[in-house]
Design brief:
By secondary structure, the chain is of the alpha/beta class. It contains 19 helices and nine strands. The protein is globular.
């Protein structure tokens, strides 16, 4: 149950808002922040009836988050769904941030929030002069995003963060409903903005246990960011302590968030990977922020391959699928199929928006298929860097050459070291045809958009001479 909200002079909390706040399952200091998001929705409903329009458009979008491996909520989007209402919520959301800051001073939450919004209630980090780029790799789980993210992680002048939104998902739990869906999108977007501006303090209220004096041993997958494992962020002189997510090649002691933020500001560019951003349209305020030069790379993969990979990596979540396959009786529940369809539709709607190139996104969006990266990694890396406006260094080229020629038995399910030319079609020879049929039926529109061919029968599914991939040029329009 959410903690009670403090009373502020002149602020009366409607009963429906109180009920909604207590329906949220949130923990940690940031509960107050989310409560104000909810208040925003109620006030807007009272004055402009916006909440009803948001709920109509998003009412089929469950936002429950199960566990660390569950970055795959059911998104049952109606065809031609839109998130235009998010922009309508922005002004109210921004106004409530200043009110939250005033309350945070009273509650002793001031240090982290002071760093986040600055003394005047505005983000304190100024964009670096020159040609600094801010790259967001937008994907879903098991699409090869960790591998592609390494293309930016390996470049010395890029500050790269691996899945920082993991902490938000683990701390904030929304129940089903359209308003909650819009609320989660706003929270993710706001945190992303601050991280791209090198304000890493924004993560502190979400990390559990909470950092002490801006020191933490619990930043998720710290070792997947070279910038967090090199000097001066890495402080090997600190005595050895327990680190849940330690650096791969050296022990650094607790992460000093202040040193990490300073390192971010010293780098020429910032890049991060996120599998929890569902709607491209929610990023419009970031693309229009004059402090950012945002470039969004949306990574997609054949949904048949994605499902095959998830059934291995997240085995316990797919017991019903496996039971259906082995027992051969009955069928999958409608909820299971709808979850699959919803995920594909969410990806398709974002890609269609990006490919339409609205004014706010023109020159800022690139669609990349994992299969093309796997077949031609160096070429695709050059295209991504060219799109981002960042020179590709020999350091990255060397890493790609070494890590795409791995032996067959050296690539585990979470590895970024692949024999990429063989890996991308491996799923075809382990997936039963009836499972492929389910995916094809649920994800047909997305597969057609991205150029994934349907398998007509079991023989064509396992026949290497039959390509299931249409050749496509670069998905980028300037």
């Amino acid at each position: 149950m959410a903690p009670p909200l403090p009373k502020e002079k002149g602020l009366t909390l409607p009963q429906e808002c109180q009920d909604f706040v207590h329906s949220l399952k949130i923990r940690g200091k940031y509960a107050l922040f989310l409560a104000f998001v909810v208040i925003a929705f109620v006030f807007i409903e009272k004055e402009n009836k916006i909440i009803s329009r948001v709920s109509d458009k998003l009412k089929q979008i469950p936002q429950s988050v199960a566990d660390v491996n569950s970055t795959d909520p059911a998104l049952l989007l109606p065809e031609n769904a839109s998130l235009l209402s998010l922009s309508e919520l922005d002004s109210t959301f921004s106004q409530l941030q200043s009110r939250l800051r005033n309350l945070s001073l009273q509650l002793g939450m001031e240090p982290a929030l002071q760093a986040q919004w600055g003394a005047a209630g505005k983000p304190s980090q100024q964009a670096r002069a020159g040609n600094r780029r801010h790259v967001l790799l937008m994907a879903t789980t098991r699409t090869g995003s960790s591998f592609v993210g390494e293309f930016f992680n390996q470049q010395g002048n890029v500050f790269y963060l691996f899945e920082p939104l993991w902490h938000i998902e683990r701390t904030v739990f929304f129940q089903q409903g359209g308003a909650s869906a819009a609320g989660s999108a706003l929270v993710y977007r706001d945190v992303l903005k601050q991280l791209l501006l090198c304000d890493l303090y924004v993560l502190e209220p979400f990390i559990s246990p909470a950092p002490e004096d801006h020191l933490t041993q619990f930043l998720f997958r710290r070792g997947s960011s070279r910038s967090l494992c090199e000097e001066p962020v890495c402080t090997p002189s600190v005595k050895k302590v327990f680190e849940k997510y330690h650096c791969r090649n050296r022990r650094c002691g607790p992460l000093n968030v202040t040193l990490a933020a300073e390192a971010c500001r010293r780098k020429d560019h910032v890049a991060l990977k996120a599998v929890r951003v569902r709607q491209l349209e929610s990023l419009q305020p970031l693309a229009e922020d004059p402090r950012l030069d945002l470039r969004v790379i949306q990574l997609v993969r054949d949904p048949r391959a994605v499902l095959a990979s998830r059934m291995v990596a997240f085995a316990t979540k797919y017991e019903s699928w496996k039971k259906w396959l082995t027992e051969g009786q009955g069928g999958l529940s409608e909820d299971e199929v709808q979850r699959l369809r919803g995920n594909c539709e969410s990806i398709r709607l974002s890609a269609e928006l990006g490919l339409r190139q609205p004014a706010w996104l023109r020159g800022r969006y690139l669609l990349v298929r994992y299969e093309d990266v796997a077949r031609r990694p160096l070429q695709k890396a050059r295209e991504m860097y060219g799109f981002a406006g960042i020179p590709l260094t020999p350091q990255v080229e060397d890493w790609i050459q070494k890590n795409t020629q791995a032996s067959r038995d050296s690539s585990d399910v979470y590895s970024t070291r692949k024999n990429s030319s063989e890996q991308f079609e491996k799923w075809r020879f382990s997936m039963p045809f009836k499972l492929a049929q389910v995916v094809q039926a649920a994800c047909g529109p997305a597969m057609r958009l991205f150029g994934y061919k349907l398998a007509r029968d079991a023989a064509s599914l396992t026949n290497r001479s039959v390509s299931l991939l249409e050749e496509r040029g670069i998905f980028w329009v300037t």
